[in-house]
Amino acid sequence: MFDLQQDVYRPLWLRVVIVAVCLGWAAVEFVSGAPFWGILFGAVGLYAAHQFFIAFDPKDPDEADRKE
Q1: What is the mean pLDDT of the chain?
Q2: Where are the membrane-spanning stretches (predicted)?
Q3: 3-state class (DSSP) for residue 25
Q4: Which of 30, 48, 53, 66 has the fewest beta carbons under 10 Å from its own?
Q5: CB-hemisphere CA count at 13 Å for 39?
Q6: Which is higher by pLDDT, 25 or 55?
Q7: Global confidence as pTM
Q8: Burial of 33 per CB tally in 10 Å (0-12, 13-18, 19+)
Q9: Interatomic CA distance for residues 47 and 23, integer angstroms
Q10: 7 neighbors 54 (Cβ within 8 angstroms)
Q11: Domain boundaries, the chain
Q12: HEC sequence for 28-68
């Protein structure tokens, strides 16, 4: 879906904010009576949480250069 393994997502605060905004917006949509958008943003938030906190492999930029 999205490549969330890029170096731009290395800062922890950025990953936390992205997941919190997606899941927070999903809650807003559910409360306002729009379950389709709530499910959509909830799924994006859960996918981002998985990619950022479970599957994320932060590498030093020097390591990535050495492998190429």
Answers
A1: 86
A2: 12-28, 34-56
A3: helix
A4: 66
A5: 3
A6: 25
A7: 0.78
A8: exposed
A9: 10
A10: no
A11: 22-56
A12: HHHHCCCHHHHHHHHHHHHHHHHHHHCCCCCCCHHHHHHHC
Q: Please give the backbone phi and psi of residue 45, each rounded to the nearest 5 degrees, phi first.
A: -65, -40
pLDDT tens for each residue of 21-53: 999 999 999 999 999 999 999 999 999 999 989
The pLDDT of residue 23 is: 97
Structure tokens at 41: 């943003």
Handedness of CA 38, 45, 6, 2 (dihedral sign): negative
Q: Are 25 and 43 in contact (CB under 8 A)?
A: no
